[in-house]
Amino acid sequence: MLQVRNLHTYYGHIHAVKGVSLHVNPGEIVALIGGNGAGKSTILRAISGIVHASSGEIVWGESEITHLSSERILKRGIGHVPEGRRLFRGLSVRDNLVLGAYSRKDRDKVKKDLTAMEALFPILGQRRRQLSGTLSGGEQQMLAIARTLMARPKLLLLDEPSMGLAPIMVSQIYEKIKELNRIEGLSILLVEQNARMALGLAQRGYVVETGRMVMEGQTPELKASNEIQRAYLGKGYREVWE
Amino acid sequence: MLLQQLVNGLVAGCVYALVALGYTMIFGILGIVNFAQGEIYMYGAFGAVLTLAATGSLPLAIAAGIAAACLVGVLLERFAFRPLRGTHPLIPLISAIGASIFLSSLARLIFGPEDRSFPMEFHPRSYQFFGAEITVLQLAIILVSLALMVLLWLFLNLTKHGKAIMAVAMDSDAARLSGINVNAAYVTTFLLGSAMSGVAGILMAMYYNATAPNMGLLPGLKAFSAAILGGVGSIPGAIIGGLVLGVAENLGAAYLSSHFKDAFAFIALVLVLIIRPRGILGRQ
Amino acid sequence: MSVYILHVLIMVAIFAVLALSLNISVGFAGLVSLGHAAFFGIGAYTSGLIMIKGLSFPVAFGSAGIITALLGLALALPALRVKDDYLAIVTLGFGIIVSITFMNLEITGGPDGLVGIPPVTLWGNPLYSKPGFLLLCGVVLGFMIASMYTLKNSKIGRAWAAIRDNDVTASFMGINIYGYKTLAIVVSAFWAGLAGSLYAHYTAYINPHTFGLHTSIMILSMVVLGGIGSIPGALLGAALLTVLPEVLRPLADYQDIIYGGLLVAMMVFRPQGIMGRFKITEIFGRAR
Known about the structure:
Helix content of chain B: over 70%
CATH class of the largest domain in chain A: Alpha Beta
Number of strands of chain A: 10
Number of domains of chain B: 1
CATH architecture of chain B: Orthogonal Bundle
Number of helices of chain A: 10
Shape of chain A: globular
Number of helices of chain B: 11
Number of domains of chain A: 2
CATH topology of chain B: ABC transporter involved in vitamin B12 uptake, BtuC
Oligomer: heterotrimer
Distance between the termini of chain A: 30 Å
């Protein structure tokens, strides 16, 4: 469904992403893991149009979206929950959600979706009128995800949802993500530094280091691989919750 | 006496507030200081004065003045600021200064440097209260300004598009990812700010009966000080800054020194930046 | 050489000193000033008034530099406390306050300005000849250019360059950014004051309109046009913006239109100026 072919991006003179290719099939959860500054977020930002792709192709369904504007890409069904939440901090929780649906014209369905979001993340209903900047980290992350979901994307680009959150919060959020994938068939491309959690959720994974794709495969293979274990899962990793 | 000065100050303050709103919105969303805001104000005045002289219709004149101001604003955005997006703030600053010089000298060339009176008589009626006098025109200025401010507030806080503009100011990338057309938001901001400055110019053309190509320079700078005083980027801040400045200026001129009246705005500016840079209502 | 050309050359020389002085704070240290004409004016009025009171030119000249430098210090102390982006605005406010003050003080002659400023007298002889005055300006300019290069390549200049690029990083490296920034403003004010003195005794009559916002912008334009931080650039900018209005005199009505349009076009197409080697982002660090 989503195909990225030989993507290159630059940050000034710095070659940030060096010929990365990946794909996401409908209904899949795919993890994109790697160390700090490896370029994972940049890949997502190139897909959603925030960062300019200097070469390569990004194909969504039948059409090429490589150089489309972010607004158009969202309309076509790819939603991006950016790293660091990036909420509209001076606006209320409700307003953030409403703006998430900005590009939609079907006002009645939007109202229904607002209710659905508040059902999925009850805390958002409780704090409806509160300024989003005053929410806790976990609540903000939930709002960020809900905001993007309001656009009814078919593919969700999730950038480091666990960053800065307590493990309990992260589990809760991951539960919701699993639910969305199972019930709605939402495809997810998940970027995480926390490889353990990401591989616990995803069916497939890619490993990126310094802008290059260094490994890919089904989750079980990745987990079993020695390099991955040593680099990302800690020596002596044990299947804690399997 | 004091009350009279307050009234006069309020009138000036309302006008400063309108132009300050233009500055603060543009700075809040695009991060640039539009030094040419005073020129937009001036073209609004000229648009109205010339149309009124030609057609005799006040509503048409006002519409023309606002249209002229908006046109200048949109052209500014397109040619003097959009090509410079993402550059170091000094670059659009100098561009704005250049645009300001260009626009005012263009006006001088086209319209001539002389003052023009407003081709309409106003009701000489005034109201007395507690020893102060307020003319119908002064009252009209205050009411129109307040109405515009309220309308702006309503638009920004209660409509989807208004909230989208505020969202762009808060985080333009996140706004993009929410499907908001950031370019359109920029142009809309310029339109709103220009319309307000244009109305301010028209009101002042009526009040001082002297429309000239250089009329925008000093009020523009003072309104800018007002925006900073109130907290740049804050809409209520611009309003409060404008009102406070107008009143302070008039009180200062009456009780301290009338020679230095024009300096008060800039003294306030320097003091605010040194003592409390974020202004009265500014956040970080 | 015709009197007119000599006049233009003298003006170029004076404004060259002025542009170079602004280049110290803007180009070397990265401190944008929109009120530089205030220093020009303070030097001019100081020097003029001192000679009117009967003191000699060297005293007037020196005092112009020193007093302007002291006022620069007075500005720098509070002004440098504000965030970088706002410094330009503070200097703008300062410049306007100073020009309004010139306009309203009795001692400066109010809006009519100062008349009857005595000419430069060296060793008891008044200097009336234009070539002679040009020579004097040339000497001052020469000293200035020499000191500019010395500064630029000195430890001070390198500290300024570090601050200009990223003052937070510079402070981590142990550079006293506050002290160096203040120094830049003070030195810049000093030379501007000297330029003011030369101007006052050349024209024999000064009025506050010369030292207002328009002139401040023009001086900044000279630096920007020539290329921020570039010494030959500042000279070129000063020459261009002094000569161009003379050349365009038949088009007097269009002068400012061209000037304004030129500034905008410059920023859109070549913000690093004519002689500038780097993009402004490289000089000032990343756009914030």
